[in-house]
Write a structure and sequence with these properties.
mainly alpha, 2 strands, two-stranded antiparallel sheet, elongated
Length: 116
Amino acid sequence: MRSHLGRTCPPARPGHEQPAAARARGRFTRNFVVQATAAEWALVLLAELRMLLRGSRAQLVFFQHDEVVLHAPAEEAEPAADAVRAAAVTAGRRLFGDVPVRFPMQPRVVEGYDQR
């Protein structure tokens, strides 16, 4: 099994041919394709976001799964939020072409890290 960009799934080991292990292996490989491809999309998202933020004072502070935390002066908060949305669209198009699937990112501008 391979992800969209070609990451390979670890090979089966001896014993994986047993029915219960084979079912578990099937679940693992299906999940691998989805999770690895999502990670590839996220890497492209971050690269796009870094390019869009060049020249601004916004900084990438944290990223995990589908959460991106930026730190920016108040006057640059909305443009930084727009950059997140644009990076998500571009990452989806770069990886998958012009498909009907959307990758919505819903940025929220807050005044502190303790706010959601």
